Amino acid sequence: MDQGTGTRAGRHLAGHSRGALLWAALAAPAVSVDRLGLNEPRSAGQQLAGITVLAAAVTLRRSHPLPAFLLAATLGLATAPSLFTLAYGPALAVLALLLGRRADRARTALIGFGGIAVAGTVKIAVRDVDPTVEWAVLMATLVFGAVFPWLTGRYWRQGRELAAAGWARADQLEREQRIVADRARLRERARIAQDMHDSLGHELSLIAVRAGALQVAPDLPDPHREAAADLRAAASQATDRLHTIIGLLREEGDEQAPLAPAGESIDALVARAKESGLRITYADERDHPEAQARAQTEAQRDPARRELIDGTVHRVVQEALTNAAKHAPGAHVTVTLTRDGPATTVTVTNGRSGGEGSHASPSPAGGGSGLHALRTRVTDLDGTLSAGPHGDGFRVTARLPDRGVAPRPAAPRLTEARRRTALAFGAAVAAGALLVGGTFAWYAYTRTHSVLDPADYARLRVGDPRADVERVLPDRTVADPPLERAPTPPPRGADCAYYRSSGELFTSVAHFRLCFGGNDGEARLVDKVVIPTAQDQDHHNHHNRERVR
N or C end of the chain: smaller count of CB under 10 Å? Predict the structure, then answer.
């Protein structure tokens, strides 16, 4: 036998052992309550049938939990119409708990509860008992002995499923972490590629601008002019080749990591571009004391974000100047930095190529890789970037807020749901407690107010007028007398009433039967009988059998 077969056999044996222990635990109350005198005694055959049905229910508890629960409920209804029995109550609660733990669908369980309520109600209706008390006990037993254990089982099962889902989620997070690490490597490669594209592309554009300035110099000899033209063409070709190579390194869809400024301020960047021949008007309107104070406050509050904003502003200006030098050589460029409330705005506008009188060459309308990367980076900082034609030229505008958009606080749905569930459960418990308390109070009232003192019963004589007898009778009569234990049938045509001999609850007590009748117009006591308890009747029957022997 291999290890797998042995393991399955061990689990099978353990399951049988647990089933046997559970059956023994559920059968113990069914046998012991009769011996302790806590309910009406049953015959040995009835007890054997009960524990046999319990064995069948325990066997079905795993594969068919609903039929197993219904078997226990059937035992309760067969023993008492109100479902409340000390013999089978524990089995009802335990199998309801297992039903909630193992059954997938709640609808079948609710249908089973409804069927039990209907069957109990019908049985109460056809019996000559007080329906109010019996039905209230039935409902209370169904709620506390079946529905609440079933809910507990369902919560138990959900807890286990949530734990399993948590472990599955942990495994998934592990896999996602490995994916994140792989993407981080790709992002770093994209960052390096973008840095090369922006920095080297900018430098090559400036070289092309300087070569263009040499080419149009009036005092330059023709051979040097041709060399300058070749240099400008070579710089443009190098820029295009750089763009192609960077495109191979950058994978489409890679996220762009934030890049730090290339070790220079925007003032230095603009000054270097001017030295290369670009005509630039630069205005930094952030020098206002109030704007500087606000920027300093935000930098102290979140220095990392301030650094990202400064780096992004530098990259916007660098990309816009590069595009202006490449697509609109000789055009006038205006760079403006402003603070618009709690945000920094940078605007770069270039006119027509070659000055005011020449036609502008086409500029990228936001679809280039550089502007695409800028838009992604600005959006990551909760900002906005617009790029497109402006008059006869081109404009790039980026607005970067000092603070990111705070994530909306997640609605406390889970906490609210738990609160509502707790309130509903508490309300159900309170309603059930009131139902049980009211039922018990009514039960105690009817039992204690239908007691005829044995001394008063002994003083009554057959033939006494009914009016004299009623002076010592209690307020109420017994609604469900033990007629089957009466030693003799009541006189024909007599009006009989039954009373308890003691106010003890949940125990078998002797009952008194008083029958009234008469033909002379005045009702008189015509019969009085003591109905013994079940234990006394069994003892009397046993004694009579011994005398016959």
Answer: C
Instruction: Tell me the two tokens of residue 84.
Output: 């409340």
Mean pLDDT in residue range 467-496: 87
The one-letter amino acid at 501? S
d(CA 137, CA 443): 9
Range from 90-99, 301-310, 537-546 that averages highest in pLDDT: 90-99
Residue pair 494/517 in contact by the 8 Å Cβ criterion: yes
Q: Which residues contact 299 (CB under 8 A, 6 or more apart)?
A: 306
pLDDT band with cut points at 50, 70 and 90 for residue 48:
confident
Instruction: Encode 183-249 in three state secondary structure.
Output: HHHHHHHHHHHHHHHHHHHHHHHHHHHHHHHHHCCCCCCHHHHHHHHHHHHHHHHHHHHHHHHHHHH
Cβ proximity of 168 and 111 under 8 Å: no
The candidate with the shortest Cα–Cα distance to 228, out of 242, 243, 218, is: 218
User: CA-to-CA distance for 484 and 537, rounded, in angstroms?
Assistant: 11
In whole angstroms, give the CA distance from residue 502 to residue 363. 107
* Chain segment 181-191, per-residue pLDDT in tens: 766 776 776 66
Question: Which of 282, 270, 342 shows the shortest CA–CA distance to 306?
Answer: 342
Instruction: Give the position of tokens 């044995």.
Output: 454
Question: Residue 466 is inside which H or E element, if any?
Answer: helix 466-470
- 343-350 vs 384-390, strand pairing mode: unpaired
Beta-ladder partners of 173: none
List, for residues 404-452, the tens digit of each pLDDT value: 655 444 444 444 544 655 565 677 677 777 776 777 787 788 888 899 9
In which order are the strands placed within the sheet that holds 279-284? 279-284, 332-339, 343-350, 393-401, 384-390
pTM, 2 dp? 0.41
d(CA 222, CA 99): 99
Please state, as a whole number, how many other Cβ atoms lie within 10 Å of the Cβ of residue 93.
Answer: 21
CATH number (3.90.1010.10, 3.40.50.280, 1.10.10.60, 3.30.565.10) of 279-404 reads 3.30.565.10
CA distance 9 to 374: 66
Distance between CA atoms of residues 310 and 375, nearest Å: 15
Domains of the chain by residue range: 17-173, 279-404, 454-548
Distance CA(471)–CA(246), nearest Å, equals 113
For the chain, what percent of residues have pLDDT higher than 90?
Answer: 11
Give the list of residues 6+ apart from residue 345 with CB closer than 8 angstroms, or none.
337, 338, 339, 397, 398, 399, 400
Helix (H, G, I), strand (E, B) or coil at 115: helix
According to the model, what pLDDT value does residue 430 have? Answer: 77
- Dump the DSSP string for 349-392: EE--TTSTTSPPPP---S-SHHHHHHHHHHHHTT-EEEEEEETT
pLDDT of residue 253: 43
Give me the pLDDT at residue 38, please.
61
